[in-house]
Amino acid sequence: MPDNTSHPSVIVVGAGFAGLTAARELEGIGVDVRIFEARDRIGGRAWTAECLGGHTLEMGATWVHWMQPFVWTEITRYNQGIFPSPDIDDAYWYSRGTVHRGTEHDLDTALSRLQAKILEDSREFFPFPHDPMAILNDPVTDPDLVARFLAADEGSVLDCLRNGEYSDEDIDLADSYWSAGYQGNTATASPLMAKHWGALSDHRSSLMDEQTLRFKLTNGMRGLYQAIADDVRADISLNTPVQRIVHTADGAEVTLVDGTVERADAVIVTAPIGALQHIEFHPPLPEEQQEVISDGTNSTGFKIWIKVAGHRSVIAGAPGDNPISLLRSEKMLSDEDATIMVGFGSNHEAIVLDDIASAQRALDVWDADLTVLDCGGHDWVADKWSGQTWATLRSGQFFNGWSRFHTTDTRLRFAGADYAKGWNGVVVDGAIESGISTARILLTELRPQRGRSWPTE
Description:
The structure is a single chain. Helices cover 29% and strands 22% of the residues. The chain is α/β, with parallel strands linked by helices. Among the domains are: 175 residues, 3-Layer(bba) Sandwich (FAD/NAD(P)-binding domain), CATH 3.50.50.60; 96 residues. Helix 2 crosses helix 13. This is FAD-dependent oxidoreductase. It comes from Tsukamurella asaccharolytica. One of its GO terms (molecular function) is oxidoreductase activity. InterPro entries: Amino_oxidase, FAD/NAD-bd_sf, Flavin_monoamine_oxidase.
């Protein structure tokens, strides 16, 4: 245990939302913090940058909502504003060689009955959405409910639609939505993740859409992560990857890329699951954690920004075997007579993010007369320090994935969206939740005995 006559120290690996909020929480109670970030910037998979000829766009995390409790607290704390993505006039959805057209309402109506089936049982499975394993830990839970809950982590998110009640067009439409949502192949996607999203959205698909695709920060994600960083007293060492972590029951030793060795009473690693393979742990991580790292998440997809000619108010969907599964208009450019659109797909190798011809081929599937002028984005899956976009769950990983990183018998801890109990993987809310909760749990071990305190200097 740390010496009660001095401040304990914690090393934080990563300066994304989880690392920054963990550092702020620890410093607030008197812990000395050092932060080491592999990239040349803060923010992690939230990155507000200039793209498509100088337009400020989000390369990663984008949307927020007041029903996401942790991010909304930070938005309130730092007086950040929000604004909505634009309403949509024209909807296109592609299935088996046919392009269907209608309004956004038509698309929502067609999708809502499918979502109701996919989200079925979410209320029973997740009575407390931010405690997703609650029914397993309740001794009075009906054993039949437990069995159904465990079984719902197997198979594919779309299996429930393959019972004869739903057409090929229905299944393709659902595949369009969830190929984008899971950022990967729906055939390997755990059905439970979708149900958990539903539970976090009052079991309503319309609210789920509003939480994940509707409201953005006026000052961008950069406005929020920079505000948190400004409240952190510790130096943030950029361009400083961590190569090796030795962790024991009473401390940690971190070796940096230049060979420097840093020691502390504990270490919090906020690297995504897809990047953990680049850190050597000694002793090695438990076999069950290594299995998750080796298997990876279901996240193999991408996000792309596309500028098209004219003012186009469009939302479009196509099944996951097409390059882009979900496309929607995000910003009208009156001075350029153009529109900036955002797209998501399940396979980052199916498109070249900065190649106009590649983007044009992807958009041509909807026969919507969309002419690509420019495009760009960041390949998070190919990025060594992420290895994925947001962390979505493979079949079997709801119970045998992210939660395996919650327990440890050493002073090594994991925090980040990938390990969150609430909005796991997908939005900034989960990263902030995990950063705060991990820091507070660690503080119970580092806190001085009652009647004693850490010195103020």
